[in-house]
Amino acid sequence: MSAPHPVIEYWFDFGSNYSYLSTLRIEQAAQLAGVSVRWRPFLLGPVFRELGWSTSPFVLQKEKGEYTWQDMARQCRKYGLPWRRPSRFPRPAVLPTLVALAGSGTHWVGGFCRLMMHLNFAEDRDIDSAGTVAEVLTAMDLPVASLLEDAQSADNRARLREQTVLARARGIFGAPTFFVGKEMFWGNDRLDDALAACREPASFSP
Amino acid sequence: MSAPHPVIEYWFDFGSNYSYLSTLRIEQAAQLAGVSVRWRPFLLGPVFRELGWSTSPFVLQKEKGEYTWQDMARQCRKYGLPWRRPSRFPRPAVLPTLVALAGSGTHWVGGFCRLMMHLNFAEDRDIDSAGTVAEVLTAMDLPVASLLEDAQSADNRARLREQTVLARARGIFGAPTFFVGKEMFWGNDRLDDALAACREPASFSP
After folding, report:
1. Nearest-by-CA chain A residue for B196
2. Where are the domains of chain B?
3. Residues of chain B with pLDDT > 70: what percent?
């Protein structure tokens, strides 16, 4: 009766604070809902620039930005997640994004993304260096050298640029963004709705 | 032990689509939580202009605007509320705002606000006319002439202008916005969190 393989597409950026919340939540929530996650790391910066914004709206709009940090502290308390306001925001994360993209179909992608997010939003560490990424991959007992090489290959870099094009084509204007079939859900606040939509047969019509 | 009189301050605008959701939800949700609602109708337009925006971000940002209408349809389905996308957005509503402001401490304010919101977001009707407001007040069996007179008095108009000043001073940048003590919560998605905060004694410290 129900769709055999419900899938949620998860578009996120390592510098995005609300992506921190959903990256830490999504795998467990999806598992409970019987849904699999398709990890879609991308860079929000180029998307913002194409929309005419020089950086995050939380930086451009002072009032909204100040509120966001209060909201984050409360949301992290609600979800039981550690939180430390990053001293640099939004943090660049090209290399972690390339690694997550190269590993997006693997068993380790979720764990890798959670650890990188933890460094940014719970430990206030810069994350866009080979040293930091290698530290995380080593802790996960993964082959550091070959993964860093694959991640930085011309092919994978081209794939990351394509992610920006795809994001724009699909109407993405922020992160996190979830897709269930063609239906778009924006923001960590919509994760539960998106997972619920995975179970509605209508969502899987072409 | 707990605070004797938990109160949620509810700042909303009759033209704001997400205010439609919380206006229809708040009184019942607050009652279940043992919280009373302090109605704070205001005009978002002047606040947006002071922030440098000529109109709603949903109009200024095409991608976000298009998403918003999909999201509204889904949210209304989730909450069991009727929905029809307004042909005019954001709809002017100075007179309903004046009436709600004049009646903000009365027993009928919640019912009045729900009916006005219903006209805008479920019946796609213009709401900023004495005829329409009178229709609603009549349906509620309220003294139309005296309420319209009070609402449009110089005192009440001055009070509405003060609402804009207060909104800016408190850091409001959108609607709906809830306050629990000094803590601000933005968006219909935070209504439940704000009501939960009403029950935390810490929220009531000066």
Report:
1. A78
2. 7-204
3. 95
